[in-house]
Design a protein that fits this description.
With 282 residues, the chain is of the alpha+beta class. It is built from nine helices and twelve strands. It is elongated and about 80 Å long.
Amino acid sequence: MNSQQARDLFSEYREGTLEAGLREQFERALRQDASLRKDYEQFCAILMALEGGRDEVIEVPLELSRRITESLETATPAPRRFNIIELFRSPLGYGVAAAVVLIPVILISLNRGGGSNASQASMLGGSTVPTRSEFRMVESELSIVLQSPKSDQLEVRDGLEGPVEQTFEVGAKTLRQAFTNAKPEAQGFWFDFKDDTLADRYVVMPGRTLVTTQEGEGSILDLATAISNHQGIAIEVANPSSESTFKWNLTPEDNLETMVEKLRVQGLALSDNVSDVFLLTE
C-alpha cells in the first residue's frame, strides 16, 4: 500500500470500519512512513475540530447579518461548490484544511472572551473515538498506546502460540502499557486482538545480553530473534506466520548496515519506523 492509497483510507480507519486485511496494510504503512503518520494525526485533529463545532451557535451582529443577506441576494451562483474533504486528498491540503477549520474556531473562542481551558478543549474535542495502535521502544521498555471505537480484548502471548501472559481491555479509553524483557536472550511477544479491531502484531524484544556470533537456519521468527540478540534492537515481524526458511551468519563485525544487505539478498527488508522498533518484512 502506497502513501496515497493509505490517505484515501484515513476516514475508514479512524471510524474503525476497515476490514482486517486492509487495516493491517494501513497500519504497516503508518509505521513505515513518518510523514504519513503526521498527515493522519492532522487529519484527525481537523475532523475533531469540525465535530466539536457542529453544535456551536454563533450570534452574528444584526448589521453584519443584513449585509450578508443583501450580498447573497445579488450574488451570481458559483459554478462549483467548495468541498473541504477534497483537501484531504493531498499532503499540501492538510495545511489549508487546518487553516480553514481552526482559524474560525480560534476566532470564535477569542470573541467569547477566552473562557476556561476546559471549555475550549471541549469545543475542539469532538466525540469520535480515534483508532490508535502505537508501539515504541522507550529505553529498555516496549511502550504501547491503544485506542479503538469498538471494544476488544488484547491477549499478550509468549511467542506466536505460547501461553497468554496478560490480558487487557481495549476500547474508547486510551490504554497505555509498558512491557519489559528481563531474560538474557531476546523474547517474542504476540499481541493478539480477539475481535481484530486492531491488527495483531508480533514484536521481538532484546534481552539483557548480546550474542555477537550467531549462525543458523529457521523461520522468520527465529531470524528476528537472532538479529535482536545480535544488535540489541526490538523487531516487529510483518508476517509472523510465514512458512519460508532463512539462513543467517552474524559476526562481531556485522552492524545494521551490513545486516540489511545480508537480508536483502534473501528478499527481506529491515527498516526503522522512527519508533526504535525495526520492521522485518519479506
